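[STRUCTURE TOKENS]
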Amino acid sequence: MKDTGKHQGLRNQLVALLEQKGITDKAVLEAIKKVPRHLFFNSSFADYAYQDKAFPISAGQTISQPFTVAFQTQLLEVKKGHKVLEIGTGSGYQTAVLCSMGTNVYSIERQNELFKQTSILLPKLGIRPKYLSFGDGYKGLPSYGPFDSIIVTAGAPMIPKPLMEQLKIGGRLVIPVGEVVQIMTLLIRKNETQFEKHEFGEFKFVPLLENKN
């Protein structure tokens, strides 16, 4: 598949819709405008790529709704050069958005099938995260921390302590918390022991899986 003028037009329409829905971060909107979301879909479903909807991918997972990707990314307040830990590589689309914003992305995927696919796809698209890992997102990547930002792209019943520990002071952790429906939650690390918590309404994610050696 190629990225055509038609696809760029569809991305422009998607960005306009996201602005209407309240996304204001210009860097986030530029990244959505730039990243060819249809290339993260099986070619037979590419027509669905620029609808503001989640869509099934391999291993029973989903590619998140563009609004959700933009909303989580906006909450992170990333800057160029920031070190970002992503829990749940999935299709690689969120990874690509973060990379296109000039961040250094370290990403963990629990599903081996998806890990293998994104390890091939991202370099093919010229997208180069710092590190892709197959493993347990609950544990994070302590040897690569601390991180300026941590984004979790699956629903967790609680906020994993190892992720909180791997956040820099002043860093931001964005995670959907809940069993059936999730509350989008932002933690800002104030010092070694204190975190400021903000909640941003209900979202629906696939569950965050653990216990992968």
Observations:
- The CA atoms of residues 69 and 94 lie 6 Å apart.
- The chain has a mean pLDDT of 92.
- Strands lie at 55-56, 62-63, 83-87, 104-109, 131-134, 147-152, 167-177, 182-189, 195-203.
- The first strand starts at residue 55 and ends at 56.
